[in-house]
Specification:
Length: 383
């Protein structure tokens, strides 16, 4: 007998003329749910929209639900319509009511201007045919080979805070020195001692060797200097998420990739732990969970839940429970939320527990018609 029940799946947002992906969900203090997701329009009706973050038109969409996800308000751009060229958003509401939207942002240039910026010493990357990643390592003769008519530079890491549940925002640029920018796919984490931490990975490939977190002690109005979690010169760790699992005890889940290009969609989730509130961390070790990236949630009963996408057949969304704060995982009782996607273009789940033992897992995935959308599945944990 299964220890869980998959109740039903709903579509939160779908647009046949846009790329919809990378959701993050949170429960507002007034009981409503709020979701942040990535959105970019389709440039060519005969071809699918570009995957984030390849298009300067990528923006954040926010939407709220007053009936536990059954219906959703018409989504709107945040923090405003002109905020574009961004990575995956995270959304979190803090104990004092502050709503925090977080993300990395690029600078975008037409190729002619990008050439001048590169000549002046700025880090510029282009997308070349046949390459999975954007690259800074190209010759001047390869400008004409660029796949798109734009190039990108690096702007920085940002948080936007709202005191009216997401109607308006104020923006803060986070100083990440000595590390170069940062990205992740989840929001901030509020600790029991009042600190707000935001775990990220350095953003420039192939120099994304440092995973770290920044700290705020005033509800994300200001940020302190970064604190290192792990340096990884060989096996890359990225897209971290952290849960507080005990007094001064933090548990971090990490996506892994061997060198950033080969076998990019393979690998187990790794984890590390801090017993002193984030000052020092253990060396990351592989978990039995095969997929990425991971989202952590401490359940009402004290168990730790990790939700993740599976980008190998059978393609889908999965979760796993730990009864000892992540020391071991019940992989033999892995929760299969979805296993019916047509390919690996999926994942990035986040989960809320809206009643004890009642979960709502949101994620994105490509549908059989080639479009992507954000969906959510209601899951009951029965034992």
């Amino acid at each position: 007998m299964s220890d869980y029940i998959i109740n039903k799946t709903i579509t939160i947002h779908k647009d046949d003329f846009a790329y919809i992906s990378h959701p993050s969900i949170s429960v507002l203090n007034d009981g409503r749910w709020i979701i942040a997701l990535s959105h970019s329009v389709r440039r060519d009706i005969n071809n699918p929209p570009l995957h984030p973050p390849e298009d300067p038109l990528f923006r954040n969409l926010l939407s709220r639900s007053a009936d536990k996800g059954q219906t959703w308000e018409k989504p709107y751009f945040a923090p405003d319509f002109d905020w574009h060229g961004v990575e995956t958003p995270g959304i979190s509401q803090l104990s004092n009511g502050t709503l925090v939207l977080t993300q990395f942002r690029y600078k975008w240039y037409p190729l002619g201007l990008a050439k001048k910026r590169r000549d002046a010493g700025e880090s510029i990357s282009i997308k070349l045919p046949g390459d999975r990643d954007w690259t800074e390592e190209f010759t001047n003769s390869e400008w004409d080979d660029a796949l798109y008519s734009w190039a990108r530079g690096y702007d920085g890491l940002y948080s936007h805070y709202s005191t009216d549940n997401g109607d308006t925002f104020k923006t803060v640029r986070i100083n990440t020195e000595p590390y170069h920018g940062g990205f992740t796919r989840t929001g901030v984490v509020e600790l029991s001692d009042g600190r707000i931490i935001y775990p990220v990975t350095e953003h420039i490939f192939p120099r994304n060797k440092h995973t770290y977190f920044v700290t705020s002690k005033d509800y994300c109005r200001n940020w302190e200097k970064p604190s290192l979690i792990v340096e990884s010169p060989d096996l890359f760790y990225l897209e971290p998420h952290i849960a507080e699992v005990g007094k001064n005890e933090l548990y971090c889940i990490l996506r892994s990739t061997h060198n950033g290009k080969e076998d990019f969609y393979a690998g187990y989730l790794y984890s590390c732990r801090s017993l002193d509130g984030g000052i020092t961390w253990t060396i990351p070790e592989a978990t039995p969970m095969y997929g990425h990236p991971g989202h952590l949630l401490v359940l009402n009963d004290g168990r730790l839940l990790c939700t993740y996408g599976r980008r190998h057949a059978p393609f889908g969304i999965r979760a796993c429970l730990s009864e000892d704060n992540g020391k071991t995982w019940l992989i033999d009782k892995e929760i299969i939320i979805r296993d019916d996607f047509p390919n690996y273009n999926l994942g990035y789940p986040t989960t809320i527990e809206y009643e004890p033992g009642k979960l709502f897992v949101c994620y994105y995935g490509q549908q059989s018609d080639g479009t992507t959308c954000v969906q959510g599945t209601y899951v009951s944990i029965t034992s």
